[in-house]
Design brief:
- Pfam families: DUF5994.
- InterPro entries: DUF5994.
- By secondary structure, this protein is α+β, with helices and mostly antiparallel strands.
- The chain has 4 helices and 8 strands; from the N terminus they run E-E-E-H-E-E-E-E-E-H-H-H.
- Strands 1-2-3-8-7-4-6-5 form an 8-stranded mixed sheet.
- A hairpin with a 3-residue loop joins strand 7 (about 100-105) and strand 8 (about 110-115).
- The protein starts with a strand and ends in an 8-residue tail after the last helix.
Length: about 190
C-alpha cells in the first residue's frame, strides 16, 4: 500500500497553492531502489523544495541536504531556505541518476525519490508514482523513465496505425449514399435487348 500525501502550501510559500504530488513507499517495508516519487510542477528547486521538505521533515526527520543530477535542473542553488532552516543542495553528474532526487537527514538517513518531469501526462505520472512506491520494485529511476517512454512510443504507434487503418477504409468505412446512387445509375438497361 502506498501513501499519497496531500499538502497545500501556506500563502507565504513560493510554490503554487496546488497540492504536493508525492507518493511514498509504505513505512516499514524492505528497502527498495526508490522510496517513492515526486512530481514537481516546475524545474525551479528554490520554489519546489520548501513544499517537499515541509512534508518530509516530520516523517523522515529534518532534511538537511538534497542532491540532484544537473541534467534536468537548469539552475541549482547552493542553499534553499526551508521552514526555519536551510537545506544544502548539491549535484553530481556521473554518480547520480538524472531522474532521482537524493534527500539526506542527519538523524535518520537517506531517501531516493524518482523525479517525474513536470510536463508528464497525468496518466503516465500516476503509473510512474505507483511503480516507484512499490516496495518490491527493482527498477532504477532511469529504467522507470525509459520504460514509460517506450510505452508512450508504443501507444503513439498504435494510435497512428489505427488512424491509417481508418483513413484507408478500415474500421467504420462505408460508401457514401450519393456514390452508391451514382454507381447504380451507371448500370445499363438490358430489358430492351
Amino acid at each position: 500500500m502506498t501513501t499519497t500525501i496531500p499538502y497545500t502550501p501556506a500563502v507565504e510559500d513560493r510554490t503554487s497553492s496546488l497540492p504536493l504530488r508525492l507518493v511514498l513507499a509504505p513505512a516499514g517495508t524492505a528497502p527498495a531502489l526508490l522510496d517513492g516519487a515526486w512530481w514537481p510542477r516546475s524545474r525551479d528547486l528554490t520554489a519546489e523544495l520548501p513544499a517537499l521538505t515541509a512534508v518530509l521533515d516530520p516523517l523522515w526527520g529534518r532534511i538537511t541536504r538534497v542532491t540532484v543530477n544537473p541534467t534536468f535542473w537548469p539552475v541549482i542553488p547552493r542553499k534553499v531556505p526551508v521552514d526555519g532552516h536551510v537545506v544544502g543542495v548539491g549535484w553530481f553528474t556521473a554518480e547520480q541518476d538524472p531522474h532521482k532526487l537524493l534527500l539526506l537527514s542527519y538523524s535518520v538517513g537517506r531517501w531516493d525519490l524518482l523525479v517525474i518531469p513536470p510536463e508528464t501526462s497525468p496518466a503516465t505520472a500516476a503509473r510512474l508514482m505507483a511503480e516507484a512506491a512499490d516496495p518490491l520494485g527493482t527498477l532504477t529511476a532511469s529504467a522507470l523513465m525509459n520504460e514509460a517512454e517506450q510505452r508512450r512510443i508504443a501507444e503513439e504507434m498504435e494510435l497512428s496505425l489505427v488512424s491509417v487503418w481508418d483513413s484507408e477504409g478500415g474500421h467504420g468505412a462505408s460508401l457514401p449514399t450519393s456514390r452508391s446512387r451514382a454507381v447504380s445509375a451507371q448500370v445499363p438497361d438490358t430489358k430492351g435487348i
